[in-house]
């Protein structure tokens, strides 16, 4: 489908932060923007945040659909995507954005913290690609954008689980790009640097300062900085790009 106005879009982890900004940016009049969210530590707060994202999508003239769905669970993911296809008949764009951190030095890292981060960030991305890939293959079209991270390329002390998950997302992106290209589906990744969201708000001031000192552009990124690049990769303008990783880090990595 070439028009952006009737597209069905799925964004994982759309209730807050970068995911919400991506929902807002892709919510063109006539589009259907479907997103999920999951936060066992604060289910009510997360549902309220999701409602707010829904309002933002509707204000932009698009239709919103949201569900509490854990991306780490293949059954929940595939039944959510099936519901989207039953409602709208297609999936044009999938943005695998849902992600978590459980930071600590690797010698102290509990197996449960390793598993949780790999299951959400890496397996969750696989679950999304598998569920949407089948639909997109039948359509012979589709755009998949995965949210990786600069630390998936550089590594980062205290983030063994997270950086491994994001490096995995980059390898997965390239393999999916090769497998799905013959069906007209592109798969790319973005690698954000230090972006101001709830995820980074919890970092100690000293860590934030140290990160900022490594950013040539001299400021933290905004969710909008990421969303605009995702929007490009999800558009017809990026038709001849696949398997690529675009860094959005103010020059942190070059
Ligand atoms: P955030 O913590 O503000 O929001 C996370 C979102 O993911 C929420 O909507 C939450 O409901 C959802 N989520 C978490 N676990 C989930 C699960 N199991 N199933 C479904 N949804 C789930 O995070 P932020 O900062 O907006 O991050 C978004 C993505 O960008 C993540 O993949 C993160 O790793 C990546 N990223 C963030 C950077 C930053 O500096 N904030 C830098 C590089 C990458």
**Biggest sheet layout:** 7 strands, parallel
Give the fraction of residues assigned to helices: 40-55%
Shape: globular
Give the bound compounds.
1,4-dihydronicotinamide adenine dinucleotide
> What's the total count of β strands?
7
The DSSP helix count reads 9
Polypeptide structure, described:
By secondary structure, the protein is an alpha/beta fold. It contains nine helices and seven strands, in the order βαβαβαβαβααβαααβ. The chain has helices at residues 17-26, 43-59, 74-88, 111-139, 151-154, 160-180, 198-201, 205-212, 223-233, and strands at 8-11, 32-37, 63-68, 93-96, 142-147, 185-192, 245-248. The chain has a seven-stranded parallel beta sheet, with helices on both faces. The longest helix has 29 residues, at 111-139. The radius of gyration is 17 Å and the shape is globular. The model has no long low-confidence stretch (mean pLDDT 96).
Output the keywords:
7 strands; 254 residues; single chain; seven-stranded parallel β-sheet; 9 helices; binds 1,4-dihydronicotinamide adenine dinucleotide
Write the layout of secondary structure elements.
Blueprint: E1 8-11, H1 17-26, E2 32-37, H2 43-59, E3 63-68, H3 74-88, E4 93-96, H4 111-139, E5 142-147, H5 151-154, H6 160-180, E6 185-192, H7 198-201, H8 205-212, H9 223-233, E7 245-248
Parallel strand pairs: 1-2, 1-4, 2-3, 4-5, 5-6, 6-7
Helix pairs in contact: 1-9, 3-4, 4-6
Bound molecules: 1,4-dihydronicotinamide adenine dinucleotide (NAI).
């Amino acid at each position: 489908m070439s028009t952006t106005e009737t597209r069905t879009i799925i964004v994982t982890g759309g209730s807050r932060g970068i995911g919400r900004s991506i929902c807002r940016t892709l919510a063109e009049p006539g589009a259907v923007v479907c997103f999920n969210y999951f936060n066992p530590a604060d289910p009510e707060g997360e549902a309220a945040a999701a409602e707010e994202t829904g309002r933002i999508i509707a204000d932009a003239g698009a239709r919103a659909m949201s569900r509490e769905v854990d991306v780490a669970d293949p059954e929940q993911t595939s039944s959510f995507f099936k519901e989207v296809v039953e409602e709208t008949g297609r999936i044009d764009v999938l943005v695998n954005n849902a992600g978590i951190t459980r930071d600590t030095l690797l010698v102290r890292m509990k197996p449960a913290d390793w598993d949780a981060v790999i299951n959400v960030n890496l397996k969750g991305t696989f679950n999304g690609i598998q569920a949407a890939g089948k639909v997109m293959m039948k359509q012979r079209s589709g755009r998949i954008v995965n949210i990786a991270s600069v630390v998936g390329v550089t590594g980062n002390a205290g983030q063994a689980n997270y950086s491994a998950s994001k490096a995995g997302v980059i390898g997965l992106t390239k393999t999916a790009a090769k497998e799905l290209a013959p069906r007209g589906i592109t798969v790319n990744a973005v690698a954000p640097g230090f972006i101001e969201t709830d995820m980074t708000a919890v970092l100690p001031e000293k860590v934030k300062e140290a990160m900022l000192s490594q950013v040539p552009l001299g400021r933290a990124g905004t969710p909008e900085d990421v969303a605009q690049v995702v929007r490009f990769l999800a558009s017809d303008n990026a038709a001849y790009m696949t398997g690529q990783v675009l860094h959005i880090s103010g020059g942190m990595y070059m």
